Amino acid sequence: MVSLTEHAFRPQIEGTLATDAGNFRILIVDDDPSLRRTFPHVLARPGRVFDECGTIGEAIARLEHEHYALILLDYRLPDANGLALLDWLVEHQRDEAVIIISGEDAIDAAIAALRRGADDYVRKPYHVAQLQRAVDGALHKGALEKANKLMSQRLKASERLHRYLVESSPDLIFTLDSAGRFTYVNPRVKALLGYDRSALMRRPFTTLVMPEDLDRIDGLLSQPSSLPGESFSVELRLRRYRGSANADGDCVTVSLTGIPMLTQEDDRRVVGLYGVARDISERKRAEEIISFQAYHDQLTHLPNRVLFKDRLELAIAQAHRRTGALAVMFIDVDRFKLVNDTFGHAEGDVLLRTIAARLSATLRRGDTLARLGGDEFTVLLPDINQPEDAEVIARKVLDALSPPISLSQGQFRATVSIGVALFPRDGSTAEELTRHADVAMYQVKRSGKNAYRFFDPDLNTRHRDRIALENDLRSALARNELELHYQPQVSLAERRIVGLEALLRWQHPVLGQVPPATFVQVAEEVGLIGDISAWVLERACSQVAQWRETGLTPPRVSINLSAHDFHRANIVATITECLARHALDPAQFELEITESIMMNDTAGVASKLQELRAAGISVAIDDFGTGYSALAYLQKFPVSALKIDRSFVRDLEGPMTNPIISAITGIARGFELELVAEGVENEEQARALRALGCEVMQGYLFARPASPADAHRWLIRPESLFETLDAAAAETQTDLSA
């Protein structure tokens, strides 16, 4: 219900807000000129005027001559941080609204800014809409505060206006007598605390104060009698009426300002207290949220890396004093990328939250479960009496994850790999224990996953060997230790070489021949695969050009590309420019890719493959049948050939017992693709492959990968590749080439 007083003064308030809203001066304080130019564009509104400067000193110089509705303040500036300007504003009793814009990760920066009077704190990187909302809110709040200030000045001239402002205030306003009992309280008390005004009259103010704050407020209420005229400010928690419909909690946090009321006859005699209590619950909640986010993972709400390290260091210190023991577990989710790639990141998040809940349920009350990031978790197990205690918990973790997890796309059985490090046996610092648990977990990954393992110093030795291998690989190109070998692809029907696959080899000066399966993966992980692929392309092109100069007509040469190569935007140009530089026909080259490449960034990979095919370069899917083998991808991607993986050929016994190879040959015929079988080692395999419809083969039956000189001899005398096969055929009186 609106009072006559409210009705009389409402037009004045609304008119004041409307007038002020049309002339907002905004000061931008940021040392980045591009941001200072951008803000006026994204924050432009009718009536807004922008000034800008780059330092605290320049800002203060402007503020000494100008007043602003709002200051957009960068936290870190060349001459000082933004807190200095907030202190200046408080010292000079300025009323400008301030929004701090900061890239600081530390929680202390945000809390310090809010406590010094900042109206909002926007953390970089931010969304434009977020900044616009913050500015709109601050300007609106500033307009309201300006109107409130104007009305306060009119209090001296109009008791009626005073009554309206007090009773319409968003703050709780009250007066107390000399005994600390309510003599007046504005209507805000009903909405804020749920009490009727009449019910509070003559009741002590302390009956609203939570017990934990009573001692503090009792002392402050007695202070005016000894220091007349002195005001005070304090944060308190006021209790809500139990029958209140407000469901936000049992208490409200307020910022209370108390001003002693003095008699007109004796300005040293205190007769009561004038109080204003502002609800700061939202600000306190914001501080708590910021603090929580700084030390917890936002997805699972578990402790993050920082908090886990703090707790682990504390546990180590306590174990030192008690000569006790503790354990650290490093847990990595197996096949997590498969869920993300197949079902999407939203389903991956559901999986992580479910795993976190199951892990938490298996641990003891004093244990700490943390999420380091991605699919990695760590566990602190204090008060471990013997290694078997950690082993029991590791088994419980594996058992807890054995039931399937329900996702929207179906059920998924999650497994984890667990590494365990013990204090003090495996390390004396938080960093050592976490690293050694990680080393043990990595060994579980390599040994088959879904298991646990304790740290073994030998594991660390293998990891050091891995680091040494990485370092040697970085200089292998410069030392000319890499070389290309070639293995022929032959047509039994035509008894000729139809292709050569270029295979990378590394002749390590100490270790000797390092298998590609070992160092290629290392090259991908350390970011060297791009340089190595470029070297392979250049060396293969150069070799084909040399063979051509000797008068030979080399067959098509195949080279393998890593999935990482397709992440490069210029991969197509790199290949075509290399072919052009050596004056080679693109039809002489074929690129071999794996099925996993097609599953990653489908649109981007498809466009690159289309460009390669348009340039005349063939594309083959290597190890076909061992990956996803989705026929839909064969329709999307312009491939020209399939290579049957050696694992299918190795188990070959006869055409009727190999439905997989039969299916692959059918797929090749249906899509009109060339077909090559890898790993052919004996005449029985060759016979079975021919019966199944595969004519082109590659393997030890014909030749092992060999140097360019050996490949040169094959090109001159290709019939030498069929001698072993002919001898076997002569014994069985069967001509495989017929």
Description:
The protein has 738 residues and is α/β, with parallel strands linked by helices. It folds into four domains: 4-154, Response regulator (Rossmann fold), CATH 3.40.50; 169-284, 2-Layer Sandwich (Beta-Lactamase); 296-455, 2-Layer Sandwich (Alpha-Beta Plaits); 476-723, EAL domain (TIM Barrel, Alpha-Beta Barrel). The protein has 28 helices and 26 strands. A hairpin with a 4-residue loop joins strand 6 (172-177) and strand 7 (182-185). Helix 5 runs antiparallel to helix 11. The N and C termini lie far apart (104 Å). Mean pLDDT is 84; it is low at 1-21.
Give the key terms.
single chain; 738 residues; alpha/beta; Rossmann fold; Beta-Lactamase; Alpha-Beta Plaits; 4 domains; 8-stranded mixed beta barrel; 5-stranded parallel beta sheet; 28 helices
